[in-house]
Fold:
Amino acid sequence: MSPADWKKVSLLFDDCSDYPPEQWNKILNRRGETDESILAEVKKLLSNREKAGTFFDSLSNRIEAELSPRHQHLYHDGDRIGKFIVKRLISRGGMAVVYLAERAVRTFANSSAPLKANEQHSGDTGRVPGNMACLAAAGKLPRAAIKVMSCHAGNPWTSFRKEQNILSKVSHPNIAELHDYGITREGLLYIAMEYIDGVAVDRFCDLHGLGTGDRLRLVVQVCDAIQYSHGKQIIHQDIKPSNILVDRTGKVKVIDFGVAAILNDPGNRSRPGTGFSGTFSYAAPERLAGAAPSFSSDIYQIGMVIHKLITGDLPRTCFDPAALQEYFPGADNFPRKVMEEMASIFAGTLSPDPAARYQRAEALAEDIRSLLAGIGSQ
Structure:
């Protein structure tokens, strides 16, 4: 089996691993994979999930070594991308590479110097804001997370323009800010976003030993961000813990609008062979069935995040609010009324019927705030 085939096996395994065995075939069918050897390998690994994780860890480096050098140009410390100087690699995936970078500054001594050989004009005038020299001297230059589209991405220009257009519409304290975008000297598309010095929300909760109340308070911030984006007719489509970062002060930032969609865009509906936008394990059931994304499908994903933060896991089958008492570790610590309100929140987010879910993220946030009044500091 080739490295490319193993990459497919890895992706399919990830898509199915959070679901019970009876749903594996349905998910694999949705992915449209027809190679029987790949499907057989996926099912074999799924049947022995404990060893599969170790297997993929040892395989990943070899796959990247085989695939990436031929298809990706990598930037290094000191290289310039638009207005920023690359400091280090953050992450590397099939569609993009993300770098930590700092804002480039020209002092008075070199303000008229020509651009370096690897600089590409991105609309920057080269003028330095008045306080930039002071920030440079203090070692506090603005930092950015720069996503450079891979040259082997399926249709990088279309996805780039879509993401850039969506990000240019948003400005909210709980959404990572767009700094810049353009094309590098090598002809690669890039988007520079606000760099968040934080960790995924589930990891933040575990690292700080947060109680149920504090975990839900973070979710309220997520709701505020998603309500704002919905007000701009933007559907995130990929709400999950790794796309919800929390900084050291406890401030939430929703990131990665790379697969976001505009409400009622004719191109939103999933079609056979076009692939799935988002993460299978957090996707609403109607999305897996091929329905177009909606505000309701975002609400479902928020419900999945709440479930993960409160119970420590994703629901393995269709969520049953009546069973919440059985698998919520802290259930015995709360009055019955609180548990009923929590079950109601889950029912309003994780219902298989989109019409039965909250229709607005702010309504969900209001119910969570009401619930928090009964939880207190727990």
Q: What stands out?
A: Residues 198-375 form a domain with the Transferase(Phosphotransferase); domain 1 fold (CATH 1.10.510.10). The mean pLDDT is 78. The radius of gyration is 22 Å.
